Automatic annotation (TrEMBL):
One Pfam family matching this protein: Acetyltransf_6
Keywords linked to the UniProt accession: Coiled coil
Sections of the chain in a coiled coil: 102-129
Gene3D superfamilies: 3.40.630.30
Span of domain BioF2-like acetyltransferase: 162-295
Protein name: Peptidoglycan bridge formation protein FemAB
Keyword Coiled coil appears in the UniProt entry: yes
Taxonomic superkingdom: Bacteria
């Protein structure tokens, strides 16, 4: 596309523009200040999408008088296996429009619809935490998120964990597990890659995680837990405003018996609270899964996520998720792949799982 998508209001001269490098600092300042914005609205995701995953980013913003009033980051994911979609934001749990007023919000949504029609995608998907578009088809019965305030005092946070789960954390402490902040992904990636393969999920390429570390700097942190000097669990977390979001995590086959997952997430929470972070975001889970139960056991209440759709070429809302029965044989077979084979094939497939 060569033309900028635009809408305008005679009263405010509101226009919709595409993000260019010269406006990135303004975009970032808006995201940092807007209550509806999340870590996944940050401009750096555009470079990660394009350079590490090979997808085109269309980052739209509403402005008037040189001031940004709303943003809508979009990624165009087009693959043979999983179709053709415009998503805000692919590979992220949250997205959608973040705006300071209804006029900017509606102008951005209309621009996204126009872009979806021009690109002739199957569908446009906006990943909102709250229902925004009641007239659109919505998937709000599959995914939930878990978010909870944390206290500056780690003892208060420990006591807030329900008794059975608290016992698992203490079990990890008694096993003399140790946690460290890593400056790179050398320990994280092998643990994560093996862990997702055992769950039947294709892994992202190592360069994707390196791109996250390079792009977001101190806002992307790896925490690794070791037992007797051997790493057993690791997680890549994102930091945004006063929130910590443990996002990509995994463990070795020994991790469960050692309570290394429980200890890992406790250590992320403990360190975050001491460093001034006030909200722990456990991220997205599917209802009825082990990760859903694990997070509920920490005393977090599930909050439904509202993924809203504008259908273009598709007839129905997409159902690309591991709970879909048509993917069961694939998942079972993937679990049996040798790890080196899974690490080669995984990135080819995972880049389409937006």
């Amino acid at each position: 596309m060569t033309a900028q998508p635009q809408t305008s209001s005679p009263s405010t001269n509101l226009t919709i523009q595409r993000l260019e490098p010269a406006m990135e600092s303004g975009w970032e300042a808006f995201v940092d200040a807007c209550p509806d914005a999340t870590f996944f609205h940050r401009a750096g995701w555009k470079r990660v999408l394009e350079q590490a995953l090979g997808h085109k980013g269309y980052y739209l913003y509403a402005e008037s008088g040189g001031r940004i009033r709303g943003v809508l980051p979009l990624g165009h994911v087009k693959t043979l296996l999983f179709g053709n979609a415009l998503i805000s934001v692919p590979f992220c749990v949250y997205g959608g429009v973040a705006a300071e007023d209804a006029e900017a919000e509606q102008a951005l949504i209309q621009a996204a619809q126009d872009l979806a029609e021009e690109l002739q995608v199957d569908y446009l998907e906006l990943r909102h935490r709250e229902r925004r578009l009641p007239e659109w088809p919505c998937k709000d019965d599959l995914y939930v998120t878990f978010r909870k305030p944390i206290d500056p005092d780690p003892d208060v946070n420990m006591k807030a964990i329900p008794r059975k789960q608290r016992a698992m954390v203490r079990k990890g402490i008694k096993r003399e597990l140790a946690s460290e902040r890593d400056t790179g992904i050398d320990r994280f990636f092998p643990i994560y890659a093996d862990s997702v393969r055992r769950h039947g999920t294709p892994v992202f390429a190592r360069r994707f995680f390196q791109a996250l570390m390079d792009e977001f700097g101190e806002a992307a942190q790896v925490t690794t837990v070791s037992h007797d000097g051997q790493p057993v669990s690791s997680v890549l977390s994102f930091l945004f405003r006063d929130e910590v979001l443990p996002y990509y995590g995994g463990g070795t086959p020994e991790a469960r018996d050692l309570a290394a997952f429980d200890f890992l997430y406790w250590e992320v929470m403990r360190r975050a609270s001491q460093e001034g972070y006030c909200l722990f975001d456990y991220g997205r889970s599917k209802r009825g899964t082990g990760s859903f139960s694990f997070k509920k056991n920490w005393g977090f209440e599930p909050e439904p996520l509202h993924y809203e759709y504008h259908l273009v070429r598709a007839k129905d809302v997409p159902d690309i998720n591991p709970l879909n029965p048509k993917y069961r044989l694939f998942i079972a077979g993937w679990k049996r792949l040798p790890l080196p084979v899974a690490n080669v094939l995984g990135p080819v497939i995972s880049r389409g799982l937006g």
